[in-house]
Amino acid sequence: MTDQGRRSFLRAAGATAGLAVLSACTSSKSGSSVTAADWNALAKDLSGPLVRPGSSSYDTDRRLFDPRFDGLRPAGIAYCRSPHDVATCLAYVRKYDLPVAARCGGHSYAGWSSTTGLVVDVTAMATVQVDTAAGTVTAGAGTRLIDFYNGLAPHGRAVPGGSCPTVGLSGLTMGGGVGVVSRAYGVTSDNLVQLQIVTADGRIRTCDTRSDADLFWACRGGGGGNFGVATSFTFTTHPISGLVLFFLSWPWSQADKVIAGWQSWAPHGPDQLWSNLHLAAGGGAASIEVGGTYLGSVAEAARLVDQLYAAVGSQPSSHFLENTSYLHAMLVEAGCTTLSVEACHLPGQTPGGQLSRQAQFTKSDIFTRPLSSAAIGTLLSGTEKFLTAGGASGGSGGVAFDALGGAVNRVAPGATAYVHRDGLFQAQYTTDWSGSAPASAIGRQQTWLRSFYGAAHRYASGQAYQNYIDPELTDWRQAYYGANYSRLSQVKARYDPGRLFRFPQAIT
Ligand SMILES: Cc1cc2nc3c(=O)[nH]c(=O)nc-3n(C[C@H](O)[C@H](O)[C@H](O)COP(=O)(O)OP(=O)(O)OC[C@H]3O[C@@H](n4cnc5c(N)ncnc54)[C@H](O)[C@@H]3O)c2cc1C
């Protein structure tokens, strides 16, 4: 695997399950609508290209981030260059009764940014414009995260966001967005001040707290793909001159003490501190690592990590702590330490893109209570079991915890659609494998992950992160949205009464 984020070994989703649900969802629209549709007319009406089966680029253009979804074959992929192009696409799918899916970075863990009908791709709308006087940034809805950070960097400003460089701003923002400065500045959607979106009726709307305020509320955490196709986002920005990046590891024999120490430290530190904890197994060994960032001086960061060492009861066996820029920190978090911004893309996204796609299977939990010693034991034995699970050569499995608290939890659960405001940390359970892995070994890795998640889940709150969308989650309405679901449903009824936008876990 080429580095697709330091956390990439912990990213994943159920291949066969995801595909099965997708085809079940989209089969309600008949294949005859696809063949009856006048695709040439659509191509003429768009300012951006329309890619159809048979075109030389079709097989690369139809791909999502995860190769598990390579079997999906949309009837058309429209690269929209403007909100007007998006409105044209929506009029077209309404006319021919075609399935439609918006696509940005293509990182949906369930493959739900593809369809058998028309993919409305927004990646051609990707300019990043900083208004220093207003302290805001307006980014095209197709902006990828590393380009967003790169656009902000010369202005010394930041907006919290995730670490995978090729994740799209649209999916991330509409489902929340957790990243290295979230304890200081909230989730990505907390920083959204305005949104341009094309709704099912084809209207191009500019939403904020005064205009289409309920739609604006829903798009801050209600999840991508539900309410329309976003075309641009305006965020408030935060001055950021630099930050301290750290990585610490201990021997696996100390893992129980590290987890206990970390959970008493990371969610309760100052807002400027963010940290994650990784338990991982693969290559015949289990490992534990703590990473993080601190918005302040190296001396203050060193004092804080000393507190962690005291809580753990030992010094780490290796440690790295350095002052750097926000952009460089995001390149490191992206696994692009030695790469340029241009190279920190997938091939085809930029001329020099050097990253690779990654097959993964993943689930999530949000923990609102500290882990008991029994829960810690479950996490350790569950991680170790990967080593004997019969996974693919080069495959790995584990869990990553991201510290919450701070600014994330100071927003009321109903203030935006992003409901998760009482977490201490969120967990992402993941297993991944290489493209050549045999199906039987992949199946064993997925079985391991379901069992690991099942054992740990009973200690969690029942909430799950909607951006780690999980086709196997049966109580997803409650898990992703809690008490906000009924209002989301009302917004859906108002802006998409005909349910143009649908997928197995769409708001209804
Ligand atoms: C490797 C990896 C690393 C990740 N790291 C992080 C992380 O650090 N922090 C974090 O919070 N999350 C992270 N995520 C999760 C990520 O936020 C979600 O997968 C997100 O939905 C991806 O957005 P996208 O635009 O790339 O995906 P897409 O697959 O393009 O879209 C996701 C959903 O949003 C819809 N959508 C896309 N564009 C639009 C639009 N313009 N308007 C309306 N709906 C739209 C799609 O139809 C789909 O339903 C990671 C995911 C992966 C695979």
Spell out which ligands are present: flavin-adenine dinucleotide
Main beta-sheet strand count, sense and barrel state: 7 strands, antiparallel
Q: Helix tally? A: 16
Residues in helix, %: 25-40%
Q: What fraction of residues sit in β-strands?
A: 15-25%
Label the overall shape: globular
- The radius of gyration over CA amounts to 22 Å
Mean pLDDT: 93
Q: Based on helices, strands and strand pairing, what is the structural class? A: alpha+beta
Quantity of strands, as a count: 18
Low-confidence stretches: 1-29
Separation of the first and last Cα atoms? 38 Å
Strand order of the largest sheet: 15-12-14-13-17-18-16
Write a concise keyword list for the protein shown above:
508 residues, alpha+beta, five-stranded antiparallel beta sheet, 16 helices, 21% strand, globular, binds flavin-adenine dinucleotide
